Automatic annotation (TrEMBL):
The keyword Membrane applies. Pfam families: Acyltransferase, GPAT_C. This is Glyceronephosphate O-acyltransferase. Pathway: Phospholipid metabolism. It comes from Oncorhynchus mykiss. GO terms for biological process: ether lipid biosynthetic process; fatty acid metabolic process; phospholipid biosynthetic process; triglyceride biosynthetic process. GO terms for cellular component: mitochondrial membrane; peroxisomal membrane.
Length: 641
């Protein structure tokens, strides 16, 4: 289970290390009173011994800050309204936004979540060394918690874990949609959530209130600040392109010299089985997302009868912003202006924040704990007609060896026979795959009556996309070697520079689909070459890259891994070149390209099996890639792919 991460992001970042061990925090909960646990003495150590700040005091500090007063006067001059009126607007915004953390509510959640987690999950495993590092970091400098985001469960789980280990509870950035949930919304607010709009537009006052609220909490170290760098849950279970707004806000106090340092803590939350798996697939296929509501939450109680396996939560090494910024950002320029005057970030600052965001997400990926099912899902998606159970078992063992050689963090049961590991995974994911007559195939929902070809296609796509959400969890391990395998297949010759040109094209094209750090094309290419040589799949005599005698299975698997993305991009490209009208808007694009993909799949089912092109995620990413490049060039090379 222990391995060394394969990614070295550079100076100031955590160096490669052996992964920590895990402790199952539910084990004690199963053997002791949940009520005693919820009511136990809770006395977390705070930043430099600071006294916790009551919610009303915090709001007063924000409303009286120089920065907010400056913006209020600006807005007053621009709108012609009196400063007192703008001040009242700011107060209303803050009242709507602010958390009201209360220990009594936290204790209620501690009790309720203990009951729920013991029903839903077999284990909730946490790396204790990471907890110890976090405990030390909280005492030294302001801390920002940056978890991955795959489920609604994430922020509840984070607070539950910190309460369990007697650590300071975080204040959590949450979307406004949660605030609309009767009773539950206020419970979340009283457990540390503060609510923000999904977008601010040009609302200068709202941005000023929001940013000053977050920075006040950070500067004073009242509590760790928690937010999701990806901005929203990933419906595909691939890491999403990071959003920079909140990261800019929490780093700015360091640039302005208001704090000595800020610790960023990447946290990886890995689910063996995702609660929302079928819901996500339907959302990607155009079914509207259910509105967050208390009644919807109550209806979801049926999930308590299901088994969702294990959760692993890995607290990464705290990353010092001070160390990262050394030699990259000239902080002296911030002394040229009064601190309370808002300024647009300088180009070098924007570049630094962007680079930091990408590398934090890479660290999240490296510390994701992968279960055997993600390997099995990867194989089943390359064999949609099904596989013999014995063949699936054999290939899963082969893929396990490949993943471990690429430093994947794989949780494979010790001393368990492979056949038992595979059968246990199939039992847990019986809603996605079944065994019949010694053959394993994906499960397609049984229709209640006659179905149209379109409905049959939709049901099949739900099955494929649900399974793909697990394959996507291992893509970061294989992505760079897979792009090299496709580049070797596509390049006009085996010359290294020819292969690199194709790799570079793929790298740029997939930069919305995967986390590829800006400027790392050459480094990623060299890493891919190293990994394929290491596992004996290719050799590099002089300036060539050629497949070895034993490399065919590896390169074939990697080509198959990226085939859904390549076929999907081809379909989108075809639509834009053959069908799209001149005045096509983004709102019209998604249903139009989905309809086109439906027709292509219905006609060419035998040749084209890319059900993933029906996903709105792929459609948006493909469009972004084509708009970023030169369409004729992209079209020509896609045809070759």
């Amino acid at each position: 289970k222990a391995c060394t991460p394969n990614y070295s992001p550079g100076r100031g970042w955590p160096t490669s290390q052996t992964q920590d061990g895990f402790e199952d925090i539910l084990e004690e909960r199963r053997n002791s009173s949940d009520l005693k646990y919820a009511l136990r003495c809770y006395a977390p150590v705070l930043y430099k011994g600071v006294t916790p700040c009551k919610a009303n005091m915090l709001k007063n500090i924000v409303l009286q800050s120089d920065q907010l007063r400056y913006v209020i006067n600006q807005v007053s001059q621009e709108s012609g309204e009196a400063p007192d009126i703008i001040q009242e607007e700011a107060s209303v915004i803050l009242e709507e936004m602010a958390h009201r953390l209360q220990i009594s509510t936290v204790r209620f959640f501690a009790f309720a979540l203990s009951k729920a987690f013991k029903t839903l999950f077999q284990h909730v495993c946490v790396n204790e060394e990471g907890i110890q590092r976090l405990q030390q970091a909280i005492q030294e400098h302001p801390v920002v918690l940056l978890p991955s985001h795959r489920s609604y469960m994430d922020f509840l789980l984070m607070s539950y874990i910190l309460y369990t280990y007697d650590l300071a509870l975080p204040v959590i950035a949450a979307g406004m949609d949660f605030m609309g949930m009767k009773f539950v919304g206020e419970m979340l607010r009283m457990s540390g959530a503060f609510f923000i709009r999904r977008s601010f537009g040009g609302d200068k006052l709202y941005w000023a209130v929001f940013s000053e609220y977050v920075k006040t909490m950070l500067r004073n170290g009242f509590a760790p600040i928690e937010f999701f760098l990806e901005g929203t849950r990933s419906r595909t279970c691939k890491s999403l392109t990071p959003k920079l707004g909140l990261l800019n806000i929490v780093i700015e106090p360091f640039f302005k010299g208001e704090v000595f340092d800020v610790n960023l803590v990447p946290i990886s939350i890995s689910y063996e089985r995702i609660l929302e798996e079928s819901l996500y697939a339907r959302e990607l296929l155009g079914v509207p997302k259910p509105k967050e509501s208390t009644s919807g939450l109550l209806k979801a109680r049926r999930i308590l009868s299901e088994d969702y396996g294990s959760i692993h939560v890995y607290f990464g090494q705290p990353v010092s912003v001070r160390s990262l910024a050394q030699g990259k950002v000239n902080r002296s320029t911030y002394n040229l202006f009064p601190r309370h005057i808002p300024r647009k970030p300088m180009e070098e600052t924007q570049s630094f924040v962007n680079d930091t965001a990408y590398r934090i997400v890479r660290l999240q990926e490296d510390n994701m704990v992968l279960k055997p099912w993600v390997l099995m899902a990867s194989l089943l998606l390359q064999n949609l007609e099904g596989m013999e159970l014995s063949v699936l078992t054999e290939q899963t063992v082969w893929l396990r060896g490949l993943a471990l050689s690429y430093a994947a963090f794989l949780d494979w049961p010790d001393h368990a026979p492979t056949a038992k590991v595979v059968s246990s995974s199939l039992a847990l994911h019986r809603g996605l795959a079944c065994v019949s007559g010694g053959r394993v195939s994906l499960v397609v929902g049984e229709p209640l009556g006659p179905v149209t070809p379109e409905e049959a296609l939709f049901n099949r796509a739900v099955s494929v996309l649900s399974c793909a959400s697990y394959r996507n969890q291992v893509l970061h391990v294989f992505l760079r070697p897979a792009m090299l395998a496709v580049a070797m297949h596509t390049a006009a010759s085996s010359k290294k520079n020819e292969v690199y040109n194709c790799f570079s094209f793929l790298w740029d094209m997939f930069s919305n689909d995967f986390i590829l750090c800006p400027g790392d094309t050459v480094q990623d290419f060299e890493e891919a070459c190293y990994l394929l040589v290491k596992t004996g799949a290719v050799q590099m005599p002089q300036q060539d890259i050629v497949m070895t005698d034993i490399g065919q299975p590896t390169l074939s698997f990697f080509n198959g891994l990226l085939e859904p993305f390549l076929q999907g991009y081809q379909v989108v490209c075809r639509y834009l070149c053959e069908e799209a009208s001149e005045g096509l808007t983004e709102k019209q694009y998604i249903p139009a390209v989905r309809s086109f993909a439906h027709s292509v799949l219905c006609v060419f089912t035998g040749n084209l099996r890319c059900y993933e092109v029906l996903s709105s995620d792929m459609q948006k990413n493909a469009l972004a890639a084509l708009l970023r490049g030169k369409l004729p060039t992209q079209k020509a090379l896609l045809a070759r792919l």
